[in-house]
Design a protein that fits this description.
2 copies of one chain form a homodimer. With about 260 residues, chain A is of the alpha/beta class. The first copy, chain A, is built from 6 helices and 13 strands. Chain A has a 9-stranded mixed β-sheet with strand order 3-4-2-1-5-6-7-13-8, sandwiched between helices. Chain A has a two-stranded antiparallel sheet with strand order 9-12. Chain A has a two-stranded antiparallel sheet with strand order 10-11. The interface between A and B is large, with 91 and 91 residues.
Chain lengths: ~260, ~260
């Protein structure tokens, strides 16, 4: 039986985010879409899974070529639900996003959008996370749609290496100003937090997490990194590993192994 | 001024978990300890951060060489709070755990314990996550303590490469049966979920996340992987990268870049 490809679409901004609808529109060009997300935004949930409270799932719409579910879980919960319970078919492609805001550099570690893509990769489903560098809820996804379509088509046709997904970030500029796609490494950077301390009406202190991104790359912003590409008008594409082994550091750690083995044998 | 090293201790099982106390005991041998965790367990929270609710922090005890905080946030929130608000000194070492249960193979992606260590590494603090392969709340941490001390001393003296932390898993067998430490790669495996569907008293369906680990490595379990080492009586030590770039896949993706650049220039 010849079937349309099945595309799983998810995000971490919730089912009613503009970026979700933009992504579904592109995904429908390639096949049947099953979309799952939460009612509420789940930004910053990373690869969290829900084990302490029951998961609730609701089918909110079903029409030819598009089925939408909402659930109370994290992005990774939603992906697991589709893989294991909600769909009889294994998706041919997982698209996550389009995130409202950047997931470049170390932001990939905190991102629910990218965790959903990584969960796809762990399950050997070709998976891509897309983010637009704008937090505007009414952001214009016109340029994004062009690149989402191009990268998705490429991956649907050629696949991805097992265990690897893509982190695609799109600058918030008009499409005619975008210079194309750059294949990049993750820029070396971190979030410097500045917890804002307040006092509640009961006199108890509390904190809000705030912060700003600090790029450790050299002056030019680190040619070849996603941060550099985005600052220079490119769409950045970083292949992301779900095998976190730092292979380059294995040799350096060997002294610890030898010492120990010597002691015990 | 010559100061004792400052050791940040955290976990994802909560401040009152046996593994936390075992880890604090070892850490105190090396210097002053600041410990932070939650009241409730935070397993499976991965690298999640709290942005929708305020963070509450409580100093629960302070004695010479040991300060303990509890907070309502995730393990990564706790680490960020110490780095940015609760401690005037930058920690010299971050120890996370000892987790009740394995964090080998792809479990590293879901683990709050390992996310805390990764957050340390992103901030260039030498960081180690420890896990014992037993979910027993009254597990015996005697053997674990030996290896925690050995690995921690090594890292405190020699440091770790920037951006890299260690994932150390300890088999739940008596110390005299442990064969030593093996430097390993992350085994190729995934969690196959079997959502358990139930109906609540109001007639509405809900799911509990359950699952089992599936190892994709070859028959012998993949010599050189953490799963293999643990099954064969070794402590596994995997250096973990916070730069998730799949460098080996950059070349393969280049065709996407060329096509696009050709189109736009």
């Amino acid at each position: 039986m010849n079937q349309n490809p099945l595309i799983l679409v998810t995000n971490d901004d919730g089912m009613y985010a503009g970026g979700m609808n933009a992504l579904i529109s592109v995904a429908r060009k390639f096949g049947d879409v099953v979309a799952i997300s939460s009612h509420e935004p789940m930004s910053g949930m990373s690869h969290a899974i829900t084990i302490k409270v029951p998961l609730r799932v609701k089918l909110i719409s079903k029409e030819p070529g598009l089925t939408r579910y909402v659930c109370n879980g994290t992005p990774v919960d939603g992906v697991k639900l589709v893989f294991n319970s909600l769909s009889e078919r294994k998706p041919d492609l997982l698209l996550s996003g389009i995130n409202h805001g950047s997931n470049s550099s170390s932001s990939v570690l905190y991102s629910g959008t990218m965790a959903a893509a990584m969960e796809g990769a762990v399950n050997h489903i070709p998976s891509i996370g897309f983010s637009l560098l704008s937090f505007d809820p009414d952001a214009d996804f016109t340029a994004s749609a062009i690149y989402v379509e191009e990268v998705s088509r490429h991956v649907l046709e050629k696949g991805l290496p097992d265990g690897i997904c893509l982190n695609v970030n799109i600058p918030a500029i008009p499409s005619e100003q975008i210079k194309g796609i750059k294949i990049c490494s993750q820029a070396n950077g971190y979030w410097k937090e500045e917890f804002e301390k307040r006092t509640d009406p009961n006199g108890t202190e509390y904190y809000w997490l705030t912060g700003f991104f600090h790029n450790r790359e050299p002056e030019n912003g680190g040619t070849g990194t996603d941060e550099w590409a985005l600052k220079n008008g490119f769409v950045s594409l970083v292949p992301i590993n779900t095998d976190l082994t730092a292979y380059g550091a294995l040799e350096r750690m060997k002294s610890l192994e030898s010492a120990q083995t010597g002691k015990h044998e």
